[in-house]
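Sample pair:
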Amino acid sequence: MRFQQICDLLARSAARDRLASGRDPLAPGRGWLAAGRGRGRTAAAGLLAAAAFGLAVTACGGQASPGASFTGTAAASAKSPDSPAPAGDSSSPAACTTSGISVTLSDTGALGGQAGGYLKFTDQGRVPCRMTGWPVVVAVTAAGTATAARHAQSTMFGAWRYAAPLPIVLLKTGDSAYAVVAASDEPVGSSTHCPAPYVRLRVSPPGDRDHVTISAWLPRARSYLPACTAIDGSPTAMTSAITTLSHLPR
């Protein structure tokens, strides 16, 4: 299994410099704020996008999550990645489940016409577990409209590409695996704004039917996950496959 990463160190540095912290307006004690909040960053995002696309793309890597590691590939596993491991078989731990992990949204921001961040899956059980494939991410608006995020092979949040088959990421207690979640933040055609944003995310680890619900607020972008559509009207919300932090830029 080999990952290839494509990112621009200077664009990443500029992005970090311009990302300011923010709070979820739907957090306890806060009222609803207009869905269009955060659009004031459009000019800055445009300048950053132009710089990112104008510079040469270079290969790079981030800091590895302690202990998280690739143990093989989904194709190389003799068992389904979602089937439990036999008792006493420490070399093939069971798949991570919703009940044994925590899910948070980290490293949020806006870059090159997209807004999003990293879904962080942390093993909180007493034994190792494994993750492979795409998580199920359903983005939900304040009105209750639900949209399943499509599978992405590249985004501005890492612009990563993989060579199939997908890796199996082994997590020990306290270790984390990651997946990108992002969407376009630019209206298309003659529109001057995007539809009401997604305010919640329903997230399931690969192969698990249960889910957790987290806020879709992106603190460093000062907005919720955008619900902008593509030119053909299709949703742009997307999620990457599970990987380690070392294969994503920060």
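The helical segments are 9-18, 42-54.
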